[in-house]
Design brief:
single chain, about 350 residues, alpha/beta, seven-stranded mixed beta sheet, six-stranded parallel beta sheet, 16 strands, about 25% helix, binds zinc ion
Length: about 350
């Protein structure tokens, strides 16, 4: 029998409890797989709700799903990747070969149950491992790993696999259809995704990016990025916009976003209204011809275009980062409020 080697993994064991645990090291379980060693991990906007128990925690689960990692081992069938290479790891597990993946709908791969993500066991019920660990097994390496140019800073790229591309896709297709449009981003509970949307809107040539929120810390970062901050408690909107992004948790915020959308405009929601109790004013959407988009970002499909923008220096996700801590500090830092936290190894 082969000896079982152990590694450290950051685990949430209950609401507000995060600690290192020794767990068995993962091994390659197929010739299309990879083992990677995360070197920079970002905290996702959903991680604080996850660790606070908003979604019931039935058993300890591994944390972290946004990272840059180094390839440590590769199955014999993996092409285009090398040991030691730096990669962004897609946070959604997807095969790269099924009908949904081929269509670019990689968030809903046919081969896996819904919400099959790293670091989010309370959502899917399946433990795929977390990025705050010494090793992570990636089941479809060619599909799920995006090579990173060696000159790029892993700390800057740590959130690309999820929150950065989520913010990007909230504005990019709509701005492509309406070049130079004015954008409003409405933030009521999310922190970094709407800021990355503002960053993308500015980078992609929006005439202006306004940013409405009741969160002063997030508004301060938005101002620093070049957006116009609107301190709002989501009463009557100031005016209407061609493109509005809804990013948050509350009915008031969603209503404000829809009421801020001009006739025939677009309201793109990046919000996860878990529980199913949220209602939509369909009469208003119908009468004014407002197109309302909602759905998860498709990580694997979006990574190449977002990483190309970053490599060109047009998109600078590091401008959103508000705190960088060492690997050892992760358990405490993961529970503290920060707009965007990055954990770096070594
Ligand atoms: Zn996430
Ligand atoms: Zn698939």
């Amino acid at each position: 029998m082969r000896e079982v080697r152990v590694m450290r993994q950051l685990v949430c064991t209950g609401p507000g409890i995060v600690e290192w645990r020794d767990v068995p090291e993962p091994r390659l379980a197929g010739d299309g797989e990879a083992l990677v060693r995360p070197i920079a991990v970002a905290r996702c906007d959903i991680d604080l709700p996850l660790t606070s128990g908003v979604f019931p925690i039935r058993e300890p689960f591994a944390l972290g799903h946004e990272c840059v990692a180094e390839v440590v081992a590769l199955g014999d069938r993996v092409r285009g990747l090398e040991i030691g290479q730096r990669v962004v790891v897609a946070f959604q597990v997807s095969c790269g070969a099924c009908r949904s993946c081929t269509a670019g709908h990689t968030a809903n791969c046919d081969a896996y149950p819904v919400l099959s993500d790293f670091g989010m066991q309370p959502l899917s019920g399946t433990e795929y491992g977390g990025m705050l660990a010494d090793l992570v097994r990636v089941p479809h390496a060619e599909a799920m790993l995006a090579p990173v140019a060696p000159e790029l800073d892993p700390i800057a790229l740590a959130s690309v696999s999820d929150n950065v591309l989520d913010g990007y896709r909230a504005v990019a297709p709509h701005l492509a259809a309406q070049p130079g449009a004015e954008i409003l981003i409405v933030t009521h509970g999310l922190k970094s995704v709407p800021l990355y949307a503002a960053l993308a809107g500015i980078a992609l040539g929006a005439a202006s990016v306004d940013f409405a929120s009741n969160d002063d810390e997030v508004l301060a970062v938005a101002t620093r990025l070049g957006a116009r901050a609107i301190r709002s408690d989501f009463g009557k909107p100031e005016r209407r916009y061609a493109i509005v992004v809804d990013a948050g948790l509350t009915a008031e915020g969603l209503t404000y976003a829809i009421r801020s959308t001009e006739p025939e405009g677009i309201c793109q929601s990046v919000s996860f209204y878990a529980g199913g109790g949220m209602s939509l004013p369909l009469g208003r959407l119908y009468t004014l011809g407002i197109r309302f988009f909602v759905g998860r970002a498709h990580a694997v499909a979006l990574l190449p275009e977002v990483m190309a923008l970053i490599a060109q220096g047009r998109l600078r996700p590091q401008e959103v980062t508000t705190r960088v801590v060492s690997w050892e500090e992760a358990p405490e830092a993961f529970l503290e409020p920060a707009v965007k936290l990055i954990v770096r190894r070594g």
